[in-house]
Design goal:
By secondary structure, the protein is mainly alpha-helical. The protein has helices spanning 42-52, 55-75, 79-109. One of its GO terms (biological process) is mitochondrial respirasome assembly.
Length: 113
């Protein structure tokens, strides 16, 4: 015979009165409402980021240079040189990705001041 059971009612937490709600937005660790670099121009930000991780712009320039020279060699009919430069472009792209990842991990592991 099946025993009759009453459905379990989950206990509800007591509601907090409005007087206990803190004023202003919630405080989230690592988030600042006021950006640190409000008046930073594009050039200033580029220089700051380049100083933080100089290998990313070097990799980007190497990638663009290999691409341009490879396309020019292809246009001139130098297929062997074009192939070598396209392989160099892939290597430069890989270097750039590794530089980005190293920069991200270095920033994540840096102690917060």
């Amino acid at each position: 015979m099946a025993a009759a059971t009453t459905p379990a009612v989950p206990e509800q937490a007591p509601k907090t009165p409005l007087s206990e709600i803190p004023n202003g937005p919630p405080i989230i660790e690592g988030f600042n409402v006021y950006p640190r670099f409000q008046d930073e121009t594009f050039k200033e930000k580029l220089m700051r980021k380049t100083k933080q991780n100089p290998f990313v712009p070097i990799g980007c320039l190497a990638t663009a240079g290999a691409l341009m020279y490879g396309l020019r060699a292809f246009q001139q009919g130098k297929t062997h040189q074009s192939q070598l430069l396209m392989r160099g472009r892939i290597a430069a792209q890989g270097f750039t990705i590794v530089a980005l990842l190293v920069g991200v991990f270095a920033t994540a592991l840096k102690p917060k001041a």
